[in-house]
Amino acid sequence: MKMKIAGLALLILLILTSTFTFASDPIDTWYWRSAFPDPEITFKGVVYGNGLFVAVGNGIASSPDGITWTSRVSGDDGSMQFYGVAFGNSTFAAVGSSGLVMISGDGLTWNSADPGTSNSLYAVTFGNNIFIAVGWNGTIRTSSNGTEWSSAVSDTTNMLDGITFGNSTFIIVGQGGTILSSSDGTTWNSKTSGTNNLLYAAAYGSGKFVVTGLGGTILTSPTGETWTPQTSNTSNQLYAVTFGNSLFVVTGQSGDIFTSSNGETWTPTSAGVSELFYGIIYSNGIFVAVGGNAKIITSSDGNIWTERTSGRNTTNLSTIAYINNAFISVAPDSTFTSPDGVLWTVTTDNNVNNDYVTGLAYGSGKFVVTAGEQAINVENYSNTIFTSSDGVTWADNTPEAGTRFLYNITYGNGLFVAVGRDGEILTSPNGETWTDRDPGTTETFRAIAYGNNTFVAVGNSGLVYTSPDGMEPWTSSDSGTGKDLLAITFGGGVFAAVGTDGTIITSGDGITWTDRTSEINSWLNGITYGNNTFVAVGRDGIILTSSDGEIWTERDSGSSSSWLNSVIYSGDSFVIVGDQGDIVQSASTSAEQTYSISGKVTLNGNGFSGVIIIAGSKSDVTDIDGNFSIDDLPAGSYTVTPSKSGYTFSPGSQPINITNSNQTGIDFTAAIKKGIIIISPSDGESFTAGEKNTIRWTVSSKMHHFVIEYSVNGGKKWKKIAKSVTGKKTSYEWSVPKSNTAKTNCKIRITGFKTAKKKTYMSTSKVFTIEPL
Questions:
Q1: Which stretches in the chain have pLDDT values below 70?
Q2: Rounded Cα distance, 402 and 385, in Å
Q3: Which domain holds residue 337?
Q4: What percent of the chain has pLDDT over 90?
Q5: Structure-derived torsion over alpha carbons of residues 233, 236, 241, 245, reported in degrees to the nearest 10
């Protein structure tokens, strides 16, 4: 236990996954977990799919019911800033700043995808079997699976902020009153909104579209063609809108909520929380709205709202144990449990209503915790002992005479032993009946451990006492240090104690001690032993490990500001708990060795990008040079298969047997099935005006010649680049026309002639840009 301190902000730096990948040393890899969303998260969007609500912002959280939420991903400095999320084709797709896209099949494990743009994407929806994401500078990207994205032309440079799908129509809204509509997600038409205000969001329901925006703007349209302004009776921003349960519900700033059955007459209500709510969804019989400071509210009718999260900055976790195949951490009023260290359940009102929980032990079929009142150095302190048979329901079993402040408890040799201030030592065979023991000192004990048939208690100013049975007598030993010792464990035949200023001492018998060098000055608050390894944790996110207790290595926890208190080993991983609900987990120590399969795909002798390579349940997509690498594969037999629409591959697949090494040089050659496919310029590529740029293509059969054209108006008018390119060629050097104007969206069209006059194939490229001089 430690001094009471001000709250620290949790920095969740790593993607949280429900499975681990192999590392050469698992304790080099640490994952930050959390039972609640970080209060510093601002949620921007929310969706429901696959039995799960998923909220995104500068982090990701999920919930099966909209009520109980678990953090999944967070960024420490806004580097993972999401603005929108959608679900379709069994896939979640979240979009955000600087072209950030992440996809997930279950809402728990997330993987990056490349949308082919670095522009920020502010919204995404799914409809008509495609995802459509929109964003900065008129950006529109489409995808059928969330992995491979294509560009669509918006013919606007305005920021696009919202999108919805309904009545077989996509509607995009954005800056300057922009409204675009499309039936297929590819061809977009601008509509007159009648306002210059920024429009944030759109929804469809009850036969009409509803759009919301700046200054209380609400617009409605039955088809998306003609728009009618409606009166909201507010000048506040209206950030989000949804339809469900025969009701439109709009959310905005200051906790404003408006409801309407027809989109025309609006009734104000309140979230009960003065917060900005940026996203809202109706699904599974409930409205869920998300916003700033990790606020999430729910309602069954759109009128009465209940707050579901308020952050976790008051939940300090000081103890953790692994009992009956589950992790358990007990805090004031809350019990945290997890079967795997990844997914955590919080049970509130556990009857442990003290200021602190200082110790946790298990024995004789019972959990026992020590809990105290008041700050540690205040004279008015008291202590309580609680017991539980299930870790959920707790009973007060404090001795009638009361106790001094207890810092720690352990179980060994059929006995609970608790230690604390002023030389306090209590023992109990069952956690219910306690006996006060006299160690012969009034110094403060801070921790106790049992091992090698000996109880060892440590404390302030290097205090060390030992006892063979935990009762009496207790014998003083010289620790060789004057530092406060805050935690102790036994493992590998060695006692190891840690404390202030990076102090570490070890002993084989608890009597003779050796000072060890940690190379740090931070407090070390907790220590455990497992998998032939000591792990010590402390202030400033410190994690130290040692195989023998003598030589210690500092590990990167991913945070330099967190106060870590206690650590335990489960047989598969180490789990650490700390202040503000910090939960940190190592990679699996039992994960098997994994390997990779890598190679290259070529087309016409050049690297071929965008080919999906599958091996077992794993896959990768070839990069711009045609290279791929499928990682994290256990030893075994695999069939490696390439795939891309419109192409055949040689060989069609390759059998690979992994024994004890990575497999390289697994190469494939691609060929077009039928017709012409333009390889370059590719989707999102840029050519420079006034310079030579190479147009490349492939064709399925021999041609007499090719005609190459370009268009700068979406294909309405085409200009010749080359009237007759010999059929033996599959590339052409184009001198791009000079231009000093703004960058231009462009398309290339190639027509193949089987004979001098017989058109056989025609292909049009995706949109690319011509950059001005």
A1: 1-24, 34-40, 72-79, 309-314, 373-382, 401-403, 591-592, 683-684, 740-741, 773
A2: 10
A3: 321-586
A4: 62
A5: -50
Model confidence pLDDT, tens digit, residues 374-414: 544 444 455 789 999 988 888 888 887 666 789 999 999 99
Residue in the block written with tokens 């010792």: 485
Residue 160: burial class (beta carbons within 10 Å; 0-12, 13-18, 19+): buried
Q: Rounded to the nearest 10 degrees, how much is the dihedral formed by the CA atoms of 63, 583, 530, 17? A: 40
Token pair 């109980």: residue: 68
Q: Which two tokens stand for residue 600?
A: 């290259």
Q: Tell me if 539 sits within 8 A of 563, measured CB to CB.
A: yes
- One-letter amino acid for residue 233 of the chain: N
Burial of 417 (0-12, 13-18, 19+ CB in 10 A): buried
* Average pLDDT of the chain to the nearest whole number: 88
Domain ends where: 586, 607, 625?
586
Q: Tell me, yes or no, if the pTM score tops 0.70.
A: no
CATH number of the domain within which 91 lies? 2.120.10.80
Strands 574-578 and 583-586: antiparallel
- Paired with 597 in beta bridges are 630, 663
Q: How far apart are the first and last CA of the chain?
A: 66
The full length of the chain comes to 773
Residue in the structure block whose two tokens are 């995404």? 124
- 161 by DSSP, 3-state: which? strand
Strand spans (E) along 500-621: 504-507, 514-516, 524-530, 533-538, 543-546, 553-555, 564-569, 574-578, 583-586, 594-603, 606-607, 612-615, 618-621
Q: How far apart are CA 546 and CA 549, in angstroms?
A: 5
Say how far apart CA 624 and CA 63 lie, in whole Å: 38
| Residue with tokens 């940690």, as numbered in its chain | 518
- Phi, psi for 580 (deg, rounded to 5): 55, 30
Name the residue with tokens 């929380």. Answer: 273
User: Which of 419, 417, 415, 449 lies closest to 429 in space, CA to CA?
Assistant: 415
Domain contains 100: yes
Q: What DSSP assignment string belongs to 45-60?
A: EEEEETTEEEEEESEE
- For 112, the token pair is 């990056």
Q: Are residues 469 and 388 in the same domain?
A: yes
Give the number of other Cβ atoms within 10 Å of residue 636's Cβ. Answer: 11
For the stretch 261-320, pLDDT in tens is 999 999 999 888 889 999 999 999 999 999 988 899 999 999 999 988 644 445 789 999
- DSSP 8-state code for residue 453: T
Domain boundary among 625, 640, 672: 672
Q: Note whether 39 and 586 are within 8 A (CB).
A: no
Using alpha carbons only, give the angle 514, 516, 522 rounded to the nearest 5 degrees: 130
Exposed, middle or buried, 593 (CB in 10 Å: 0-12/13-18/19+)?
exposed
- 324: burial class by Cβ within 10 Å (0-12, 13-18, 19+)? exposed
CATH assignment at residue 688: 2.60.40.10
718 and 638 fall within a common domain: no
> What Rg value do the Cα atoms of the chain yield, rounded?
32
